[in-house]
Amino acid sequence: MKETVLLFHIQDEVRLQALKRILMLMKVRVKVVDKADYLQPVGYLAGIKELEVKQVYEGEELAEEMMVMAGFSNQQVDTLLAKMRKANLSKIHYKAILTPMNATWTALQLYEELKKEHEYMTQMRAKQ
């Protein structure tokens, strides 16, 4: 699978363009996911066409930004995050690597799982 980053709910256009530039320099395909596609499996959005679901989402926008990296090695993830820090791009708290497990999840399901994980990690850091 070609390296792909799915971006959800990045509203600051300047920030979005800076992130796209970083990804293009890394030769990574970028897909800004429209809210109407939030019921599609994230694997489909990343290019696994046999997972297609033709439902259109008409609900609320995600409350936070989300980024899904598909086809990335650990080194590529580290490189991307380092480049984002160097460019002073604020953190995207909800990040995931596409896996066989989450490829069939909708964007909304993945978002909810990442939200739970983020809340748990925030609580754990607060206890330290």
Can you walk through the features of this model?
It holds the Pfam family DUF3783. The protein has one domain (4-127). It has helices spanning 13-25, 42-45, 74-86, 107-127; strands at 4-8, 29-33, 66-70, 94-97. The mean pLDDT is 94. With 128 residues, it is an alpha/beta fold. It has a 4-stranded mixed sheet with strand order 2-1-3-4, sandwiched between helices. The termini are far apart. The longest helix is centred in the last third of the chain and has 21 residues, at 107-127.
Topology, pairings included?
Layout: E1 4-8, H1 13-25, E2 29-33, H2 42-45, E3 66-70, H3 74-86, E4 94-97, H4 107-127
Parallel strand pairs: 1-2, 3-4
Antiparallel strand pairs: 1-3
Q: What is the overall pLDDT average? A: 94
Order of helices and strands: EHEHEHEH
Query: What structural class is derived from the secondary structure elements?
Result: alpha/beta
Which residues sit in consecutive blocks of at least 5 with pLDDT less than 50? none
Strand content: 5-15%
The largest beta-sheet arranges its strands as 2-1-3-4
Number of strands: 4
Largest sheet: 4 strands, mixed
Gyration radius, in Å: 15 Å
Number of helices: 4
Q: What level of helicity do the residues show?
A: 25-40%
Total domains: 1
Give the overall shape: globular
- How far the N terminus sits from the C terminus, by CA atoms, comes to 40 Å
